[in-house]
């Protein structure tokens, strides 16, 4: 399959799904994974809301590098495909918070969520808004040996 086709596969997966799995690690390197609902701006910025006390949020405060995977868990065995990503995450504030909450809320409402405002994600609220900025995307090469990830440009 050529690069253009694999890019279309990746975009299709990201457009069709609502949840991504964050792969984080604490400052000692202990791994943790967490599924979160996401709203995306293009294919390189992913937003989510979490408690700053959640394990993945604490991990990101200590070590902002993370991996992300998005996949459809309902496909038949042997037909699954996923988008794997490397990213850096941050808790948003200031102008970035205003832009991010607009994106998160607008996309979320299309998926049946509610309207979010900045007041929902700043102290004393229980949640914060996070953004992962993706540097690399991969998909599995369908005609290659198992677990052969191929970089794609989106």
Could you please describe the fold and organization of this structure?
Strands 1, 2, 3, 4, 5, 6, 7 and 8 form an eight-stranded antiparallel β-sheet that branches. The chain has a single domain, classed as Roll (Pnp Oxidase, Chain A). It has three helices and eight strands, in the order H-E-E-E-E-H-E-E-H-E-E. It is globular and about 50 Å long. Strand 1 (19-25) and strand 2 form a beta hairpin. With 154 residues, it is of the alpha+beta class. The longest helix has 17 residues, at 94-110.
SSE arrangement:
Layout: H1 3-16, E1 19-25, E2 31-37, E3 39-41, E4 45-50, H2 55-62, E5 65-71, E6 82-91, H3 94-110, E7 128-140, E8 149-152
Antiparallel strand pairs: 1-2, 1-5, 3-4, 4-7, 5-6, 6-7, 7-8
């Amino acid at each position: 399959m050529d690069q253009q086709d694999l890019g279309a596969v990746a975009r299709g997966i990201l457009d069709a799904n609502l949840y991504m799995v964050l792969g984080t690690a604490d400052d000692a390197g202990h791994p943790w994974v967490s599924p979160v609902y996401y709203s995306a701006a293009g294919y390189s910025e992913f937003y989510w809301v979490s408690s700053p006390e959640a394990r993945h949020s604490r991990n990101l405060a200590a070590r902002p590098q993370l991996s992300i995977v998005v996949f459809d868990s309902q496909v038949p065995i042997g037909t699954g495909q996923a988008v794997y990503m490397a990213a850096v995450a941050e808790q948003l504030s200031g102008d970035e918070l205003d832009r991010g909450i607009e994106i998160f809320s607008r996309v979320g409402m299309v998926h049946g969520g509610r309207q979010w405002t900045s007041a929902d994600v700043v102290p004393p609220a229980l949640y914060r808004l996070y953004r992962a900025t993706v540097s690399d995307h991969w998909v599995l090469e369908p005609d290659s040996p198992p677990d052969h990830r191929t970089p794609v440009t989106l």
